[in-house]
């Protein structure tokens, strides 16, 4: 972790944290499992990470900021495949047994050690530029929906459609390199409700009462995800009087948006009056989460974010990595929403849903 200051626990987690929180939704193994033998779940997840190596290697080879990129990319592929192979032989090697945080951390660590800081930079910049040009249209389509509940549902569908832009999923990386993603087409193609976890109706009821003073949103990918999914939703919260804090990664990981990138994106979207298409953005804050992975362990966040979160009454974790794979069952002292699309077959199987199904998990804390 390369955070400038010490990381702390997110202050809205239910305490004692030790007995109430674990940053892993899907158990890869149980205490009764043989510690020296990989479980079927571990093998399935190790294979999922093995299958992602070719697309990561391809991005790394094309990184013009790194000298001898193709040679180093090959080293990355070999070294990571070797470590994943070791886990299959002995789950306790390399700081195991493995979970999704460890598997992500090792992958990013190898890339960074070989000099790759941000292999998805080019595609992030291209996708951000495309999404910025569509932002106003998407916002106006939402604004034109007079019924409050229908507008909320449309904004939520926009979050799911944006969340498809995820290059950590081998299948989606393949689709993306072939023909890109159309945001509005994706909105039309969201699987029909009820979703695999679907608390939207309960959330709608609460939404109609305009209850929240301050929301913390842990954001996910660049491009359509942050710009056409999360920001129109955040803008709607601002319109309704909620202060919004967007928490973004400190360091690059896959195509997740980083704190510096998000500052730049918001600056480009605001007009001369500091408005986001007619809505004052003075209550929109951006925080560095202190994180450097596409998943998040909420016992390790930046002090800046912890301070800003103290008085929040709504926590939103968006995306498969943060909202589903690591924090689906995380319990908070305030209302919380976990929202994301299921993009790995292993996650779909665990939840008993379909691939590309949607998770909208809302927990209300009675005040």
UniProtKB/TrEMBL annotation:
PANTHER family: 4'-PHOSPHOPANTETHEINE PHOSPHATASE, PANTOTHENATE KINASE. The keyword Metal-binding applies. The gene is LOC132799507. Keywords: Hydrolase, Manganese, Metal-binding, Nickel. It comes from the Eukaryota. Residues 52-359 form the Damage-control phosphatase ARMT1-like metal-binding domain. The keyword Hydrolase applies. This is Damage-control phosphatase At2g17340-like. It comes from Ziziphus jujuba. Coiled coil: none annotated. Its cofactor is Mn(2+); Ni(2+).
